[in-house]
Automatic annotation (TrEMBL):
Gene: hisZ
Domain (Class II Histidinyl-tRNA synthetase (HisRS)-like catalytic core): residue spans on this chain: 14-200, 225-349
A GO term for molecular function: glycosyltransferase activity
Annotated positions binding L-histidine: D68, F69, T70, R95, Q109, E113, R301, Y306, Y307
GO CC field: cytoplasm
Alphabetically ordered keywords of this record: Glycosyltransferase, Transferase
Record-given protein name: ATP phosphoribosyltransferase regulatory subunit
Length: 364
C-alpha cells in the first residue's frame, strides 16, 4: 500500500525535514489554512488558480484553502519580519484534481525560505539544503533562470507595450510564443483585425451594443491595436537570440558559455549571466557538482508565476507521471508586490514528504 499524503509516514518525513531546516537556523512558522483569495489568486500560475478551492465568507469576502505556503509566508514577513530572516514550515495544502482524480487534493508541504543576503549565496544554500535533505533518493535535478529570459525581453528594441505583454506571459509558453511570432511578423495579423483597423468608422453597421464594455473602452482598445499594428516588427536577429535562450538544454557550464556568446549580441542579459556565474561558483563551493548539473532555458515557465530568477526541481527519473518531489526558486518581485514597494531578495524551496517516502521505499 502506498503511503498516504497525510499519513504517519509522510508526517514523520515532514518532521525529519523540518528538523534539518530548523537546525540551519530557520524559524518555524505557520499560516492560516484559509487565505484571502483576492490577493492570492493574482499571484499564482494558471495551473494553481484553476485548482484552488475558493469559498465565500460573509465578513471577509472570498477566501481560499491554502494552495501553498510561500505567498502567505512572504506576506507575513513583509508585514512584520526583519531582514535577514529564514523560515521553515510544514503543513497541509489543498489543490483540486479535476483532470487526475488519482492525485491527492490535500497533501503536506515542507519548506525552507531565506530573506535577504547575497542572492547567489542564498540560491546556492537553498538548493544545497534541499538536495542534502533528499540525499540517498534517486532523483534528477533540473535548474533554470527565468530572470535571463525576462532580461532578454526587457532589452528588445520594441515598444514598452509589447515588452509588457511578453513579460506577463513568460509563464505561459504557448501564449508567449504566439505573441513573439506576431511581434516578429512570423504570423500575419488575422484578416478580421486588418479589416477592423482599416475601417474609417469601425462602429458603422455594428448593430446594437452588447456586453459590458462601453464605447469609450472599445475605442481605447482599437487605439491600442492600431498602435500595435504600426509598431515595427522585431528583427530576425533578436527573435533568433530569444529562441536560442529558450532552446538551451545542457549542463550548466555549457549553458553559461552559450549565454556569454549570446550576451555579446544581447547586452541586456549581461547582469543575469553574471548572476548565473556567481550562483554556479557558490554552488560549487557547497559541494554541488555543477559540471553535471542540468540547465534548461525554459525550465520553470509552467509553474508558479511569482518566480522571477533561479528555479530548480527534483523529480524521479523513472516516474515522469509523478509530480516533482521538490521545487523552488527566487521570487524578489513577489516581495515588492506584497511589500507595497519595499523589496528584499528572497528564495526558497518546498518538498512533498509523501513522495520522498515512496521513492525511498522503492514504491514510486
Amino acid at each position: 500500500m502506498m503511503p498516504g499524503p497525510m499519513g504517519p509516514e509522510a508526517r514523520a518525513e515532514a518532521a525529519r525535514l523540518s528538523a534539518i531546516f530548523e537546525g540551519l537556523g530557520a524559524q518555524p512558522v505557520d499560516t492560516s489554512i484559509l487565505q484571502p483569495a483576492d490577493v492570492l489568486l493574482d499571484l499564482y500560475g494558471e495551473d494553481i488558480r484553476a485548482r484552488a478551492y475558493v469559498t465565500a465568507d460573509p465578513l471577509r469576502g472570498e477566501m481560499m484553502l491554502r494552495p501553498d505556503f510561500t505567498v502567505p509566508v512572504v506576506r507575513a514577513h513583509m508585514d512584520e519580519g526583519g531582514d535577514p530572516a529564514r523560515y521553515s514550515y510544514a503543513g497541509e495544502v489543498f489543490r483540486r484534481q479535476e483532470t487526475d482524480p488519482a492525485r491527492p487534493i490535500e497533501f503536506l508541504q515542507v519548506g525552507f525560505e531565506i530573506f535577504g543576503g547575497e542572492p547567489a549565496q542564498a540560491d546556492a544554500e537553498v538548493f544545497a539544503t534541499i538536495s542534502g535533505a533528499l540525499e540517498g533518493l534517486e532523483l534528477r535535478p533540473a535548474t533554470g533562470d527565468i530572470g535571463i529570459l525576462m532580461a532578454a525581453v526587457r532589452g528588445l528594441k520594441t515598444s514598452e507595450a509589447r515588452k509588457g505583454a511578453l513579460l506577463r506571459h513568460v509563464w505561459r509558453p504557448r501564449r508567449f510564443r504566439a505573441l513573439l511570432d506576431r511581434y516578429g511578423a512570423r504570423t500575419p495579423l488575422p484578416a478580421h483585425k486588418k479589416a477592423l483597423l482599416a475601417a474609417a468608422d469601425p462602429f458603422e453597421g455594428a448593430g446594437p451594443a452588447l456586453g459590458l464594455r462601453s464605447r469609450r473602452e472599445v475605442e481605447a482598445r482599437l487605439a491600442t491595436l492600431r498602435a500595435e499594428a504600426d509598431t515595427r516588427p522585431l528583427s530576425e536577429e533578436e527573435m533568433a537570440l530569444v529562441d536560442m535562450i529558450l532552446d538551451l538544454r545542457e549542463t550548466a557550464p555549457n549553458v553559461l558559455s552559450a549565454l556569454r556568446d549570446i550576451a555579446v549580441d544581447m547586452p541586456a542579459i549581461g547582469d543575469a549571466v553574471t548572476g548565473l556565474t556567481r550562483r554556479l561558483d557558490a554552488m560549487s563551493a557547497r559541494g554541488i557538482d555543477v559540471d553535471a548539473l542540468p540547465f534548461e532555458g525554459s525550465f520553470g515557465r509552467t509553474t508558479l508565476e511569482y518566480y522571477d530568477g533561479f528555479v530548480f526541481g527534483f523529480q524521479s527519473p523513472t516516474r515522469a507521471d509523478l509530480p516533482p518531489v521538490a521545487t523552488g526558486g527566487r521570487y524578489d518581485a513577489l516581495t515588492r508586490h506584497l511589500g507595497r514597494g519595499r523589496a528584499v531578495p528572497a528564495v526558497g524551496g518546498v518538498i512533498r514528504p509523501e513522495l520522498a517516502v515512496q521513492i525511498r521505499e522503492g514504491r514510486a
